[in-house]
Amino acid sequence: MKLSRVLNRQHIDFMFKKHWLVQGKRVPIDTGAENVLREKGIPVEDALEFIKEKPGPRERVNIVGPYEPQLPLDETHPDYKTRPCLTLTNKDVLLEGIAQAQVLTKTIIAKNKLPNKIEELAEITIPKAVHEGVKKAILSSNVFDCEQEKLPKIKDPVRPAYNFPRILGITDRRRNQIITNKLLQLIERCSDFELTQTRYTLNDVQCKTVFDKDDDLIQFQDVSNILVTSNIPLKHDMNEKDIPFVEIPDLYPVKHTVTLPPEHFYDEKSIFPIQLNVSRKHPHTTWLHFNRTEVNNIYETPVTDSQIYGRALTHAFTVASAYAKELHGEEVQDLPEPIYVNCIQTDGQKYHFGVFELNTLNVDGVEGTKNVWYCKNDVKLYDRSCYFNGMPVLENYNPKIYGYINAFYNC
Predict the structure, then answer these.
(1) Which whole-number Å values give the CA distances from 140 to 41, 174, 189, 204, 385, in the listed order?
(2) Its domain of life (predicted)?
(3) Rounded distance, CA 197 to CA 316, Å?
(4) 320 and 207 in contact (C-beta within 8 Å)?
(5) Rg (CA), the chain
(6) Mean pLDDT in runs of 10 for the chain (411 residues)?
(7) In the chain, what is the straight-line distance between the N-terminal and C-terminal CA atoms, in Å?
(8) For the chain, the helix, strand and coil percentages under 3-state DSSP, each to the nearest 5
């Protein structure tokens, strides 16, 4: 082969390797800096000796970060208690439903009965334009909203292993938020200005009550999705002589604390979200959302109607008892006067209305002073709201629901 200028060129990779060998054997040049530092009394330490790990305990360095480090959940935790506290949260339901809620809260029930004042206000004629606004709110929450999230998987009991295509749509949490806020906004627009000035509306506020029940320590931790407060306590005139009450049942052989998991890390103080120095501090109406994707049984069985009713009762008891303890102290038993709280529970389609009368926080046994729960359950706002043949459809709208919601706000 003829030698040429191109063939005499050396490969760049070969040159890099040779250069690396030469540079890797370089000897550090003594600059005399060490002698100068020693003359000035500055200590000089070998780098290899400096990085060696010193014997003895290590010094902990507190690193500043976005969150405080969590304390270990052991006996050294400041909230640790040896006595277990049985806990019910807003995402749990009671195994025996409304019957277990009656025993826990020492409450008798007046079914399909609400205070006369609410029934009278619910019969007031509502303008047609208001009902049109309610229909728009229903369609906004079920059809027109832009949220597109993965909905729960569809399961066929006959073919449990079959995978249906995933459906994108509006989640139940989003639907409930939209419809309740729009309905409340519509009611405030139609109510008297003087009345609305006496109300506060709070979103997603936490309440907690801790109480003793037959030698068991129990706490209810709940969240009011909407809490309407007033500048004066809520009052209802009830004629209890003509009302047939459902007495507190006997759960034997089931204990009243079944499905309440014990916890050792808790605070024994009850929590009410509003301080007493606020002018509109009195609880008036609490809204509770039933999101089927979030509220579950611990046994992974479907939530029953009785458990939904019991959830509303324990929620109203939590708000009322937390307010009573904020007002009269943690050790209060029989109240000097009853505390009333209105409660509305909904899944966006069905509405459960209730009025809780708190008379005592001494819930031991079934004798003595009892609390009262007036309720009207399973009232449908509509039958169907969806797209049908490319058009939004709302079927069988029930105007009585808005009348009850309006009555609860204005009573």
Answers:
(1) 79, 11, 18, 21, 10
(2) Eukaryota
(3) 24
(4) no
(5) 33
(6) 54 80 83 90 87 80 75 88 93 93 93 90 92 94 92 89 91 94 93 91 94 92 94 86 85 91 92 90 94 88 92 95 91 90 94 94 90 93 90 92 94 86
(7) 108
(8) 30, 25, 45
* Predicted local distance difference test score (pLDDT) of residue 365: 86
How many CB atoms sit inside 10 A of residue 357's CB? 22
| Separate counts of helices (H) and strands (E) for the chain | 10, 13
SS (H, E, C) 50-76: HCCCCCCCCCCCCCCCCCCCCCCCCCC
Q: What is the pTM of this model?
A: 0.81
**Tokens 């025993």 label which residue?**
103
Burial of 301 (0-12, 13-18, 19+ CB in 10 A): exposed
What single-letter amino acid sits at 398? N
Strand 334-346 to strand 350-360: parallel, antiparallel, or no bridges (unpaired)? antiparallel
Structure tokens at 313: 């009762």
State how far the Cα of 137 lies from the Cα of 248, in Å rounded to an integer.
39
